[in-house]
Amino acid sequence: MSCGDKIRIAIVVSEFNYDVTRVMEEKAVDHARFLGAEVSLVARSPGTFDTPFIVSRLLATHSEVDAVAVLGAVIKGDTKHDEVVAHQAARKLLDLSIEYGKPVTLGIIGPGASRLEAIERAEEYARRAVESAVKLARRSKELSGEC
């Protein structure tokens, strides 16, 4: 791949709290276009906790993907379940990035966010996840000598 080629990203979106993640998905796709990146795949996961499985399968079967942006919203409830979900997903997503040598970026709101806070942060988190994915993919290509 030459440096003139577009960065190809995949977006993994949690369906849980879909009122928030739908907005995130739309913003992520728009921002990728703005950055000159191609969204080669959008995959959906039942929840944020499940995103590492989808990312793992995606990276194992789609070598053309340069990076993955993961989007989700983990809303605070009456227990600490949101902390478990967000921390475990984040940890495993980082592990997958290292394992596959491709950026996997975190656009997951929470833990500890209220529904209103998640709605207010949706566009920003989506934009940041995509921007990080594109920048890291470009830097990875530079460091590997592809550029």
Strands of the largest sheet, in order across it? 2-1-3-4
- Level of helix content? 40-55%
Order of helices and strands: EHEHEHEH
Please give the number of β-strands: 4
Which outline best applies? globular
CATH superfamily: Lumazine/riboflavin synthase
Estimated share of beta-strand residues = 15-25%
> What is the C-alpha radius of gyration, as a whole number of Å?
15 Å
Total number of distinct structural domains: 1
Oligomer: single chain
What composes the largest sheet? 4 strands, parallel
Distance between the termini: 9 Å
The stretches of 5 or more residues where confidence is low (pLDDT under 50) are: none
Tell me the number of helical segments per DSSP (H or I, 4 or more residues long): 4
CATH architecture: 3-Layer(aba) Sandwich
**Alpha-beta content class:** alpha/beta
CATH class: Alpha Beta
CATH topology: Rossmann fold
pLDDT averaged over residues: 96
Ordered list of secondary-structure elements with their pairings:
Layout lengths: L7 E7 L3 H17 L3 E8 L5 H11 L5 E9 L5 H20 L3 E10 L1 H29 L4
Parallel strand pairs: 1-2, 1-3, 3-4
Helix pairs in contact: 1-4, 2-3
Note down, in words, how this protein is organized.
This protein is 52% helix and 23% strand. Helix 3 links the parallel strand 3 and strand 4 (104-113). The chain is globular and about 50 Å long. The longest helix is centred in the C-terminal third of the chain and has 29 residues, at 115-143. The chain has a single domain (8-139), classed as Lumazine/riboflavin synthase (Rossmann fold). Helix 1 (18-34) packs parallel to helix 4 and helix 2 (51-61) runs parallel beside helix 3. It is built from four helices and four strands; from the N terminus they run E-H-E-H-E-H-E-H. The model has no long low-confidence stretch (mean pLDDT 96). The chain has 147 residues and is an alpha/beta fold. Strands 2-1-3-4 form a four-stranded parallel sheet, sandwiched between helices. The termini are close together.
